[in-house]
Amino acid sequence: GVSIFLACVLCQRTDDCPEKYGEKRTYKEYNLTVHYYCLLMSSGIWQRGEEDEGVYGFLIKDIRKEVNRAAKLKCNICKKKGASIGCVAPKCKRSYHFPCGVQRECIFQFMEQFGSYCWEHRPVQKLPSDESRGSSQCTICLEFVEHFPMYNILKSPCCKNAWFHRDCLQYQALSAGVFFFRCTVCNNKDKFQNEMLRMGIHIPEKDASWELEENAYQDLLQRYQHCDARRCLCRNGRDYNKPDSKWEIKCCQCCGSRGTHLACSPIQSWEENWECIECRSIFAKSGNYQNQKKRSLATSEKIDVTGRLLEEPSPKCPRQSPGSQHGFLLRSPKMLYKESSCSGTLLDLPASNKMVMSISPLINSSSRNLSVRRMQLRIQKREASNILRELKLQVNNTKTTRLNINRDNIWSSALKGFRGRNFNPANTMEVKFTNCKSRVETDAFHGSKHEFFRLLMLHLQNSSLFEGSSSKNLSLDSQAIKENLYYEAGKMIAVSLVHGGVPPSFFSKTLFNCLAYGPENVKPTVEDVADFDVAQTIKMIKSSRTLAILKSTISDRYEYLTIAGCLRPMTTLCDKDMLVNDVLLYHVIKRVHSPFESFRQGLKTLGVLEKIQMHPDAFSSILCHKPERLSARILGDLFTIHCLSGVNKVKGVDFWMGYLQDVEGGESAATLEDILVFATGTSSIPPIGFEPDPSVKFLPIKYPVGNRQLNCVELPITKTYEQFKNKMDFAISSALRLEVE
Known about the structure:
Blueprint: H1 18-21, E1 24-27, E2 32-35, H2 36-41, H3 60-70, E3 85-86, E4 95-96, H4 98-103, E5 107-108, E6 116-117, E7 135-137, E8 144-146, E9 153-155, E10 163-165, H5 166-180, H6 190-198, H7 209-212, E11 249-251, E12 259-261, H8 277-286, H9 297-300, H10 305-311, H11 333-338, H12 351-357, H13 361-392, E13 396-406, H14 410-418, E14 427-434, H15 448-461, E15 466-467, E16 473-474, H16 478-482, H17 485-498, H18 509-517, H19 532-542, H20 547-556, H21 558-564, H22 575-590, H23 593-603, H24 608-614, H25 616-623, H26 632-638, E17 640-643, H27 649-664, H28 672-680, E18 695-699, E19 705-707, E20 712-716, H29 721-740
Helix pairs in contact: 8-27, 13-25, 15-17, 17-23, 19-22, 24-25, 26-27, 28-29
């Protein structure tokens, strides 16, 4: 505790900031406190001791000599004595303390001779002549960065449009270490590290921080325990597992990523093998439609598992890592470089180390996090579906509101219908499409309502009521305010959600948080600003490096800042952060207060806004995230399969799942969306789900039939899979062609 108040013997500062100055350590036996970087970059000292000698291998007597040498040198920045670091440029006599050099934007190269360059002679990156000025996101912090090489902005040597903040790169390097620090865009390591070392990024020779985290890979050791049966019979839920009972969960013997309770499946005992529908469909494709001979557990145990386990890589590869978190400091390459027998740099590792380190846990970690995130979204969407079903109980099934919608003018006809005297959101809705001549189309199919809401949400996404690229915030449209269109938009979204339509899925996180938690509790970011000029103003204010530049920027934007009510006196450079927050708050929230209030009132229709505020995580999954892309697995779970007595259900299931797998793999002219349209009339699964639940029926018919009133696909019974596939392709293509015509 006392050491934090002791000054470093080289820079005479008490700062304890490992990210900027390296670890600060105090040695009471030597009456010595020192920053690691100050010691490492000092010009007149080398590591001449063993790893456990002195301080990081620097002998105590050598440190005393260096302190005495530096005491005679005046810092060219703070004008105080003790400047132990000198610029290595020829004929340059500037000396400075390490913290002073950082403040003056000097470059310190943590490689080879550990040279330092003053602000005048430091290496710079050059912008290629064919590359235009612009801006993009720093791929680490995702904030905007100007395409102009300077001390605080660095360019990737391997990717044309990859730019970074220096601080972001330095934090990334300290976290990843030499083994995993690489370009975040193309994953290049050697070229990227060499350039970053040249530009003064310290890449420590240590294991990555995630490798040092205790039990970081614990979840990889967990066995899948969830019942995926279409109808789970367990009262305690799908995750309940009681060994040696009918509620024990059995995993698929092929993939291990699906499970079922014994009581929810045809198997009679734990010793029987079970395959999930997806794995069984593989047998359908190969022409093997019969049940496989069930093998007992005792038989399956005869397989040589040990041999296979030896071939599998461990989730966490053994590494030649230092014993402690700071162990890498004791093996500084400054000592290795000076020894004539060792000409390699920091990056010249033994071949064996390179081989082991090439298996990056970043892939496993990112894949694991993505999988967990997808699972969380599915759970949240399932919760949202249940909430919307509760809201739908308000809908009166005995009364119907009919809307005549013109495809060529979806917005005007929707407005006319929603503003109609007889419109009631609590009535059942029917939608009929008309062409521009007001003739009712012949395809008055069950999916018209879904199609209407899909077209309506698409129109809203691209309308002047919202602004932004993919994630939208409310815009300021004075004409729309006069016509109360923001209220109507909120009302339409609420009605779409409750009546089985598609969600908007384009809300920004900021817009959603304003609805869920109130705008007073939300802090917008620069990504929420769609106006280019305003975004440029914010970027210029943020990138101001001196108070003079900041005041000049404010002067250039004086008129806008006055209108926004953000003009404030700037006394220090730190005031720019408050100014940026004021501008963001005005542009994203305060400026659109009136549209937001109208939009919020519209969302109160049928109690939707109240549920959003009560269950923000669930509704965020459908309002801020696009629907999950259809897959054979999703459709397989969606449809319940029914068979007539005497029909081989196993064979039918194999044919159906085999066809879904073929369509997903591109082996059919149809798509998974075509199959869903054929059965239900809509190309996506609405958040509330389908009513009634989609089903598949095998009947003695000649060709497949899509019954959209019942969300049912009626399928023929065929002898071979090829016959089944050909009939499915023909029926779906014919039905879709008739609708287009």
